[in-house]
Amino acid sequence: MSATAEKVVSEALSLPPALRAFVAEKLIESLDAPDAPPLSAKWKKEVLRRCAQVDRGAVKLRDAEAVFAKAYASLT
User: Fold this and answer.
1) Does residue 2 sit in helix, strand or coil?
2) Is 40 helix (H, G, I), strand (E, B) or coil?
3) What is the pTM (predicted TM-score) of this model?
4) Domain range summary for the chain, segments of one domain joined by +
5) What gap in Å lies between CA 10 and CA 30, rounded to an integer?
């Protein structure tokens, strides 16, 4: 890893959790296909609403492997 990357990672890890999450989100977004259309304001609002539900514990999360196994089983 380059010295610059190590410095960026070190500085990011020193941020409070909420800011680390923001940085991580922006980095992940940067990996999206460049030709993908941006999210509409309506979808962004929906994503934020759902994230807030998860943060509040208002929704029950399920294990992805179990969900996919159940979906696959329903197809056979």
Assistant:
1) coil
2) coil
3) 0.46
4) 1-36, 37-76
5) 20
